[in-house]
Design a protein that fits this description.
223 residues, alpha+beta, 9 helices
Length: 223
């Protein structure tokens, strides 16, 4: 019996791209279902009744939610091209930094992009301190996963590409060669990975989407 794999997502969301890259790296065929976040489908609400939002992976009728949880599920279910390290300690470290990206770096970067004046300066300083910690984890390696991209690389791709798109919208360049040479070299190496490029949204379309969201957020804050 063939396995049924479906992914409910939204094209511009970085978490969506994480899971797509993992599935492609593993060579897993899947059906992609695009969701309208302003008019969520009954299928999405049925599959994720707790959070009522994307991202949802459906494997043989069973839903799994949360991008990092989904990445681990994929790695444990399909053993080819492992994403997480084999060593238990190294696996724990990879999970730690993935959560650090989601719970620390991304919220701080978002604050920096939306803030102005001294508030922005403070947020930028905090974000750079966090990025420096991640930079130290990468030094001496081509990828966080070693010689090939793995779980933490997939989790960190938001820094490589989402930060770039937001920079084009708000004019704030957080990841520079001067500040983070190892991260910049890593981003350069990612450009040569086919699976990474296959899962990148169209640049102009993505910039326009982020700009619309940014402008809407700023307008709401000023009212």
């Amino acid at each position: 019996m063939a396995e049924e794999v479906k992914l409910l997502g939204m094209w511009a969301i970085s978490y969506n791209r994480r899971v797509e890259r993992a599935l492609k790296l593993k060579g897993i065929p899947y059906e992609y279902i695009e969701e309208d976040l302003s008019n969520k489908s009954n299928l999405l609400l049925q599959l994720n009744p707790v959070h009522k939002k994307i991202l949802v992976l459906v494997h043989n009728g069973k839903p799994i939610v949360g991008s990092l949880v989904i990445l681990e599920y994929i790695d444990e279910t399909w053993k080819t091209n492992p994403l997480l390290p084999q060593d238990p300690y190294e696996r724990a470290i990879a999970r730690f930094w993935a959560k650090f990206i989601d719970e620390k770096i991304q919220p701080t970067a978002r604050s920096a992009n939306l803030a102005e004046g001294e508030e922005r300066e403070k947020a930028v300083e905090e974000c750079c301190e966090q990025l420096k910690m991640l930079e130290n984890e990468l030094k001496g390696k081509s990828f966080f996963g070693g010689d090939a991209i793995g779980y933490l690389d997939i989790a960190a791709l938001v820094i490589a590409f989402w930060f770039e798109v937001v920079r084009d919208v708000v004019g704030l360049d957080l990841v520079t060669e001067k500040r983070f040479p190892s991260l910049c070299r890593w981003i350069g190496k990612l450009q040569d990975v086919d699976v990474v490029n296959q899962c990148r949204p169209p640049k102009e379309k993505h910039v326009n989407y982020i700009r619309a969201g940014y402008e809407a957020t700023k307008a709401a804050a000023s009212n």
